[in-house]
UniProtKB/TrEMBL annotation:
This is Glutaredoxin. Coiled coil: none annotated. Residues 17-82 form the Glutaredoxin domain. Gene3D superfamilies: Glutaredoxin. Belongs to the glutaredoxin family. Monothiol subfamily.
């Protein structure tokens, strides 16, 4: 495993809720990242750890390799990849994201 993938693995495993996104929770820099943050806030998440992929090109590319998922944002809960913005929205609307976060 490369250094970048190890760094990502440590981030994912050391925080309960991790969102790899463009920008920050306060200042999202794309609509999908902004929507992802809003969905998590609506779920009552207070311990969100965000990683701004725009600050590090190796993380930006590495996260795509880590999850075998081509887009950003990417959500991880308890070390498990959940999905991107669209999947988060679908899960939220079905009540599944709230259950996953409450478990």
């Amino acid at each position: 495993m490369s250094d970048v993938l190890q760094t990502i693995d440590q981030l994912v495993k050391s925080h309960r809720v991790v969102l790899f996104m463009k920008g920050s929770a306060r200042f999202p820099m794309c609509g999908f990242s902004g929507r992802a943050v809003q969905v998590l806030k609506a779920c009552g998440v207070t311990d969100l750890h965000t990683v701004n992929v725009l600050e590090d090109e190796s993380i930006r590319q590495g996260i795509k390799d880590y999850a075998q998922w081509p887009t950003i944002p990417q959500l991880y809960i308890k070390g498990e990849f959940v999905g991107g913005s669209d999947i988060m929205m679908e899960m939220y609307q079905a009540g599944e994201l709230q259950q996953l976060l409450a478990a």
